[in-house]
Amino acid sequence: MITLIINADDFGLTQGVNDGIIKAHTDGIVNSTTLLVNMPGTKDAVRKMKDYPDLGVGIHLTLSCGSPVRSDVPSLVNEEGSFKLTKTYREVDPKEINVSDVEKEWRAQLQTFLSFGIYPTHIDSHHHIHGWDPLYPVIHKLSKEYSLSVRNVFQKTKPQGIQLHTAIFRDDFYKNGTGLKYFHELQQELSTEEVVEVMVHPGFIDDDLRNISSFLERREKELELLTAIQLPKGMRLAERRNREKFCAT
Q1: pLDDT tens digits for 134-178?
Q2: What own/partner pairs with CB < 8 Å and gap ≥ 24 does 217-222 have?
């Protein structure tokens, strides 16, 4: 039996994205999501997630979306105070980024998450930036300190001492145009006892999303697919619940 974690990234980005993720959970196959703690829809996402205990909620660390939680991380921001990195961060000279600033900011994002009274299921990041080699020491330290597994996006460096969320991670949902056949085709590639994370991005387009992202229509198309797909025999959704742990604020 292949066990699936269907993770919707960008929870908290905007209210429309939040609503799409919740619909993909209640009416579809999404059983996990990851939360941005610094975005316009964060408070709305926090209110919503407590009503859906079967939806696993991890943290979506970021250095490339919105503004930092901390005000003392100068190497991470532009003149406007927003994060200066973008999805092309791998083209940046790593010397421009102070790794101690990254640790301070990501620790603050984790502590902000904990202040919501819930413990994250795991760690991933916007644009997979936690898999950037210069930041490996930071994610290694934080994952151990908070006892959290980490999305497996590591390319050059084989992670040592990091608990991976799954051995197999797929980011090709919808990319290859397979649509409703995606999981049937995936099943043909895998052995029968795998645990696989599949990244998805469902959402509804709203004005806030138009103002901060060019990734628009595909979110609604993914939502349509995720609420229509029937998993083939031999595949099942992982049963995940948020940890019943409330943390001091």
Answers
A1: 999 999 999 999 999 999 998 766 778 899 999 999 999 987 666
A2: 218/174, 219/17, 219/20, 220/20, 221/174, 222/24, 222/173, 222/174
Residue 5: phi and psi, rounded to 5, are: -110, 110
Between 15-26 and 217-226, two packed helices, what is the crossing angle to 10 degrees? Answer: 20
- Is the whole model's pTM more than 0.85, yes or no? yes
What b-and-e string marks burial along 137-175, b requiring 16 or more CB atoms within 10 Å of the CB?
A: ebbbebbeebebbbbbbbeeeebeebebbbebbbeebbe
Structure tokens at 198: 């599949």
Residues across the chain: 249
Alpha carbon of 52 to those of 49, 56, 78, 111, 118: distances in Å? 5, 9, 37, 22, 12
With beta carbons less than 8 A apart as the criterion, state whether 31 and 222 touch.
no
Distances 3 to 30, 37, 89, 120, 137 between C-alpha atoms, Å: 13, 28, 32, 20, 30
DSSP label at 6?
E
**pLDDT digits over 16-40, tens only?**
999 999 999 999 999 999 999 999 9
Neighbours of 9 (CB within 10 A): 26
